[in-house]
Amino acid sequence: MIGLTPERIAEELRGYSARLSEGVQTLGRIGEIEAGVSARDAVHREDKLTLYRYRPRAETLHPVPLLIVYALVNRPYMMDIQEDRSMIRGLLEAGVDVYLIDWGYPSADDRRLTLGDYVHRYIDHCVDHLRERCQQDSINVLGVCQGGALSLCYSSLYPAKIRNLVTMVTPVDFHTPDNVLTHLIRHVDVDLMVDTFGNVPGAMLNFAFLSLSPFRLAGQKYVDLIDVIDDLGALKNFLRMEKWINDSPDQAGEAFRQFAKDFFQQNKLVKGEVVIGDRRVDLRELTMPILNVYATQDHLVPPPASKALAGLNGSRDYSELSFQGGHIGIYVSGRAQREVPPAIAAWLLAR
Amino acid sequence: MSEQTETSSAPPNPFDTEFLIKQARSYLAFGEQMSAFSSQLHGQLQDGEDWGAMLRQNFDRFKAATLGSVGDASTAAEHGQLWTQMLDLWRQSISTLGLGAPPGGETDAWRGYMQVQNQYLDLLRQSASAALDLLEQRLRDRAATGKSIDSLRELYNLWVDCNEKTYGQMLRGAAYGELNGRLFNSLLHCYPKGETRP
After folding, report:
1. Which of A9, A53, A101, A254 should we substitute to test contact with B (largest number of B Cβ atoms within 10 Å)?
2. Which of A211, A243, A291, B8 has its CA 20 to 30 A from that of A221?
3. A77 and B181: CB-CB below 8 Å?
4. What is the chain A residue with the closest CA to B94?
5. Residue from A105, A114, A154, A104 nearest A130 by CA
6. What is the mean predicted confidence (pLDDT) over B161-170?
7. In chain A, whose CA is at the least distance from the CA of B184?
8. Where are the domains of chain A?
9. How far is CA A337 from the centre of its chain?
């Protein structure tokens, strides 16, 4: 039974309007929102790419560096978004020497960059830079989401340079029945899109992500914001996430073309048919130890899409870490801070 | 070369307060609509009318407004602000990208795109209508177990749950995947290759 009376509704609406009015004034005063909190130094640059080293936070540092390869479709500060929600900080405190590739923001000049450029040039140059800098024959790599797929390709093509590989919420089989992103892009004419746009606009990708849950992500979330709008800390946390969600770089056209067609539409990674540059990617070449981290409630990369790696790699030391949460929660939730960085660090430091 | 935050390298990305206000207005419109609904329902109950029949009658009116077939204009307009969330998102995205009607008048390609957009709208309407059926059913289920809805927000959250459920089912269906592709493709056909993003 609806126990609501018109008087009760009117009272709620009056309260809501008052909080909205105060909240809008607070938003106007709040100033710039910073995201990415840990101190870091740029150690290598190439075109728009910057390789950062995070300043160590442990007395004893593991000699093998960890290179984080983030996705091209969002900004990597999600890994370090605020002091109490930072996967990078967790790794640093566990004694891991952390480096991260920031891909920057592709411009019209970059529309012809291919996956070959990203894998054979950008990632490879960063890996070589770290091997030389740290005096190591091989280094550790942590690939995140789409960056995980790129890391799988790189590690298959250059296995001798990778000591341990960690993949996190990484799609491998793009055609599992629950893969909604594949479902949405399956009938899109990718050639037409790239030929029309050149670089694929970040706003278009943002639309695709929001379209998965529009009533929550574009409606309810903002209605709920009014509940915390007078709590400055909570409001800043919200705005940091908003900043990240809306900060979507355009995608270099040719790289997007190949990724959308070969990975999403034709699922070539699991078939051993992806060709990067002039070299075919064979996941059986992944002979290094592998830790595959996935999130049980991931709506973008469903667990079966990640777990497919188990049957495709050539490693004798393959293991999985299951996180009870979603695609974003694995970076920013309180549980993630307690569980994920310590587990990854322990796995790495033991090898 | 040291750096601590993203603020120096990221492009300006201010929070869209206008968007917040727009969503808040939609919520307020939902509240107004529910207030009228509640007032009518309570009045009819005091007259001794059957609660279940009254609920059905009111939801029929909401559905008619959603489907655009009948109903008074104010109900249709207020309700329209809510259930067209997805279409609003789409329009906002293409507007951000500068993808409006081509200069120099409507072309065949643009008319083709508008036709596909209307089909898309029809699919969204069906989903919104199914969400109202689900909401009505959930209200009946609650009533049967003696549970009541005591706040507007609780009712709104239930409405969101129902819309997400029916929308999610639609999204995963073959028809939506195919139509989503045609929507993108027909829009892209409106522009010369390589000229939308110089």
Report:
1. A9
2. B8
3. no
4. A204
5. A154
6. 95
7. A188
8. 40-349
9. 16
Residue positions counted in chain B: 198
Q: Give chain A positions within 8 Å (CB) of B139.
A: 1-2
d(CA A42, CA B2): 6
pLDDT digits (tens, 9 = 90+) for A198-214: 999 998 999 899 899 99
CB A65 within 8 A of CB A139: yes
ipTM of the complex: 0.89
Q: B93, A203: Cβ pair inside 8 Å?
A: yes
Q: What percent of chain A stands above pLDDT 90?
A: 87
- Could you say which of A24, A52, A211 has the minimum Cβ distance to residue B17? A24
CA distance A173 to chain B (A): 18
Average pLDDT over every residue of A41-56: 98
A153 is catalytic: no
